[in-house]
Amino acid sequence: MALQISASDCELLKRMIEGDEEAFISLYRRRQSSVYRFALQMSGSATIAEDVTQEVFMMLMREAANYDATRGSVSAYLYGIARNFVLRRVEKERRFVSMIDEAEESDFQAAENFISLDDPLGDLTRSETIETVRQAVLALPARYREVVVLCDLHEMSYTEAATALDCAVGTVRSRLHRGRSMLAEKLRSVKENDAASDLIGSQRSFVV
Asked: Which residues lie below 8 Å from residue 15, measured CB to CB, with a gap of 6+?
């Protein structure tokens, strides 16, 4: 077991292809949570995230031999599979399921690091900030949402994200720049709307 823990993803995948069930279990335990978080952050639905995660590893069992180490890491390969399943599932259902009451707060805590760069929500409470980011990320068009989730929430490099999305690094850079701008604007709008609501509420209290 210690050998499995110290083995790289590529080594585990190779052993898995050779029929080592323990290698598959180790790889699943190592990468399952990140695949789940990605699917959740992309879809907004815990149900979809659970189904996609199961489908990703079932597909890995069937098609592991198709993995090409020269094209990218195993994690990027898994994200790529997950991304395709998420897009198909969301398209089938034609709408996103609200993340409210389904996602755990911890799934978006990493986003606070991104927010702090511009601090558009500095005066909100921590829980409000996380919920606002959830909704703002989900509101982004899919091509921008996926690069923001991979690069900002999962801290993947441009190269790794490009591998997962099967596109050029330049495409990742341009989409991420646009996605961050759109996200920051959405967060600023929320802050301004909340400030306006507070002002109106205080004026009404004063009148009364």
From this structure: 7, 23
Question: Which class does domain 1-94 fall in?
Answer: mainly alpha
| Chain mean position to CA 63 | 23
Select from 3.30.930.10, 3.40.50.1000, 3.90.78.10, 1.10.10.10 the CATH code of 108-208.
1.10.10.10
DSSP 7-23: S-HHHHHHHHHTT-HHH
Blockwise average pLDDT, block size 10, the chain, 208 residues = 73 94 95 95 92 97 92 94 93 57 48 45 52 86 94 93 96 95 84 54 50
Q: Are 56 and 78 in contact (CB under 8 A)?
A: yes
Q: Which residues of 118-141 are buried (b: 16+ CB within 10 A; e: fewer)?
A: eebbeebeeeebbbbbbbbbbebe
Q: Which residue has the tokens 């409470």?
A: 125
Closest to 160 in 3D by CA, of 79, 64, 86:
79
CB 42 within 8 A of CB 149: yes
Six token digits for residue 68: 């090409």
Query: What is the radius of gyration, based on Cα positions, of the chain?
Result: 20
